Description:
alpha/beta; SAM-dependent_MTases_sf; single chain; about 20% strand; Methyltransf_25; Methyltransferase domain-containing protein; methyltransferase activity; methyltransferase
Amino acid sequence: xxxxxxxxxxxxxxxxxxxxxxxxxxxxxxxxxxxxxxxxxxxxxxxxxxxxxxxxxxxxxxxxxxxxxxxxxxxxxxxxxxxxxxxxxxxxxxxxxxxxxxxxxxxxxxxxxxxxxxxxxxxxxxxxxxxxxxxxxxxxxxxxxxxxxxxxxxxxxxxxxxxxxxxxxxxxxxxxxxxxxxxxxxxxxxxxxxxxxxxxxxxxxxxxxxxxxxxxxxxxxxxxxxxxxxxxxxxxxxxxxxxxxxxxxxxxxxx
Length: 255
């Protein structure tokens, strides 16, 4: 999970995933990354839905080398190990990376490193080795500048990446439904330190991606997924035509 430095006083809930993870039991992996509903860890059924979406949208093949940005403690990343050739997970929280290395790493193929997303993609010495990139439920916690830098650098330096999956993005058009009955405070929907991070409409996300050279394809989780009513998924492809954007209907769960 990534966070910029604190700024002005906020009149709304904020989150620091590193601090939160340190309050959880060392083996309570889903609680550490706040994959919870009403304070309770989500069911295995919902975790399976997440993994189905990742596999479907990334179209992972056995030869792929995957980069998982803002990977948290690696619990989700580890479920992809059998599907790909290699995976590198990075997260700004050194504590969660310690957990990932202790419980999930299997070097040299499957490794984890402490780094911010933008910092890592700019510093990676062999970006051409990667073929797929993902960032699940964390992109909204990147600052606007971090988000731009990450997408632009993935496009310019990671030349063999043909598909980027950014999952569980808070939908700016559904914020009112999520926060009801209260009204979001000024600045809350555009603050990466807020509880949900930055909310973006699909049009806003498509514009952000297009500015970095990516086409966008949008999807939604199957009906019944716990946060599906206010979030969407994004798949980025290298641009094939100016200002192209494809809307993908919900294909339902993968069997």
